[in-house]
Amino acid sequence: MKTRKSLLPCLFLLSFLISPALSSASTDFTNLFGYTAQPQQSLDYLPQWLSVLERHITQDVPEGNCSDSFFNRCHLKNWLHFLETIKTKPLLEQINAVNLYANKKSYILDMANYGQEDYWAIAKEFFYNGGDCEDYAITKFFSLRWLGIDTDALRIVILQDTNLRIAHAVLAVSYKNDILILDNQTQGVVSHKAIAHYLPLYSVNEKKWWLHLPRM
């Protein structure tokens, strides 16, 4: 039993890596929200994100007894089951379904969850505890990666919401000749062109990160 349990992280990682990569036709983020994107050299400047990538591999695996009525330990099993049910659907349906599924979770500030001003949660922590904006974006990112969407078509975007005057995070997905925004503040997936109050600061995926600057 112990041997079988120890294999779960490896099996989950294997399925994550061998999922067929789905192309979303264009992966051009150079004009995201009307800003330029400048690639940066190393993810070492983003230790929070590196921690997320490491913890996702080792901890985002199904666990526990689903029969407990008080504390259901099946959040990850339910998540993977949900992803299985949509993996043969058209790409746009997958994107919309992933956005709605994550948005059902409660919005909880990091200070209430973890006693920290800024903590980037993996899917396991998000489904158990709820989370704030970047936690929604991270879970949507890994959901679409599990479904086979190439990392080059995905960006977690840290930005400024000029309406609310706060920092915010969303997931951007390259789809055909557009960039779709998955946002915990809205149930519908919309084009970045339809959003005028977001100013991108930087974005990241598994390979690298980008600074976003106003066009001169």
What would you note in describing this structure?
It is a single chain. 38% of the residues lie in helices and 20% in strands. With 216 residues, it is an alpha+beta fold. It has one domain (2-61, 76-214): C8orf32 fold (Roll), CATH 3.10.620.
Mean pLDDT across every amino acid position? 85
- Report the β-strand fraction as a percent range: 15-25%
CATH topology: C8orf32 fold
The largest pleated sheet is described as: 7 strands, antiparallel
- The CATH architecture would be Roll
**Count of DSSP helices?**
7
* Helical residues, percent: 25-40%
Strand and helix order = HEHHHHHHEEEEEE
Placed side by side, the strands forming the largest sheet appear as 1-7-6-2-3-4-5
Strands, count? 7
CATH class: Alpha Beta
Distance between the termini: 61 Å
Helical/strand content category: alpha+beta
Number of spatially distinct domains = 1
Features:
single chain; alpha+beta; 216 residues; C8orf32 fold; 38% helix
Write the layout of secondary structure elements.
Blueprint: H1 2-18, E1 35-39, H2 47-59, H3 75-86, H4 91-103, H5 110-114, H6 123-129, H7 133-146, E2 154-161, E3 166-175, E4 178-182, E5 190-191, E6 198-204, E7 209-214
Antiparallel strand pairs: 1-7, 2-3, 2-6, 3-4, 4-5, 6-7
Helix pairs in contact: 4-7
Question: Can you summarize this structure?
Answer:
This protein has 216 residues and is an alpha+beta fold.
